[in-house]
Amino acid sequence: SQQGEEDPQALSIQEGENATMNCSYKTSINNLQWYRQNSGRGLVHLILIRSNEREKHSGRLRVTLDTSKKSSSLLITASRAADTASYFCATVPILTNAGKSTFGDGTTLTVKP
Amino acid sequence: DVKVTQSSRYLVKRTGEKVFLECVQDMDHENMFWYRQDPGLGLRLIYFSYDVKMKEKGDIPEGYSVSREKKERFSLILESASTNQTSMYLCASSPARLAGITDTQYFGPGTRLTVL
């Protein structure tokens, strides 16, 4: 299966709740990134965490990385209807060239008003 | 802000036609990528280029070719379009990998191609 797999595939929550998405990968990585995609649009970069970092924050986003378990999680706190989108993790394996990333299949988040 | 533009948002072509998808970035990025996105299959890399006139196959290059004559422009070519190439096509660019440089990719809005 593909490097970078998100879990769950779909998540539906109420506005104000927290949303947690997980990503697992197989090989050693340089860094891991999370992207967001609104329906029918391109991806937008959210946050990058390097392999020597364990946690990173950006506004309402919190990303953790556990290299021993080869997994990462994205937490969106106090969700809003505008957070409705698909979220992808992307990994950059060590020994890859040209910054080639491998994307997972994504988690579709629906935030109900 | 980095801007990546794609020539069309929606495109309808007939089986057997030659199709050109154009991508232009304005941030002098060395790396450019073409992906296709299908439901349940995520993003799959078709081709990427790390310099002018340089290209490498991605995971699913069959039925596609690319051209990079200028640094800012990366074209995806479907030599003879088939119905199984109906998909969303996404272009992206990123700066060259140097020490401390991230691998963040900047995406265009996508082209939804339908082959009849």
Characterization of the model:
The complex is a heterodimer of chains A (113) and B (116). Chain A has strands spanning 5-7, 10-14, 19-24, 29-37, 43-50, 55-58, 61-66, 71-76, 85-93, 102-103, 107-112. By secondary structure, chain A is mostly beta strands. The mean pLDDT of chain A is 90. By secondary structure, chain B is an all-beta fold. Chain B is built from no helices and eleven strands. The mean pLDDT of chain B is 92.
* Radius of gyration based on Cα positions of chain A: 13 Å
Number of helices of chain B: 0
Runs of chain A in which pLDDT lies below 50 for 5 or more consecutive residues are none
Q: Which structural category do the helix and sheet elements of chain A fall into? A: mainly beta
Task: Give the end-to-end Cα distance of chain B, rounded to a whole number of Å.
Answer: 37 Å
What is the number of helical segments of chain A per DSSP (H or I, 4+ residues)?
A: 0
**Most extensive interface: pair and counts?**
A-B, 25 and 30 residues
Question: How would you spell out the order of helices and strands of chain B?
Answer: EEEEEEEEEEE
Shape by Cα distribution of chain B: globular
In angstroms, what is the radius of gyration of chain B?
Answer: 14 Å
Low-confidence stretches of chain B: none
Topology:
The complex is a heterodimer of chains A (113) and B (116).
Chain A lengths: L4 E3 L2 E5 L4 E6 L4 E9 L5 E8 L4 E4 L2 E6 L4 E6 L8 E9 L8 E2 L3 E6 L1
Chain B lengths: L3 E3 L3 E4 L5 E7 L5 E8 L3 E10 L2 E4 L6 E7 L2 E6 L8 E8 L11 E2 L3 E5 L1
Parallel strand pairs in B: 2-11
Antiparallel strand pairs in B: 1-3, 3-8, 4-5, 4-9, 5-6, 7-8, 9-10, 9-11
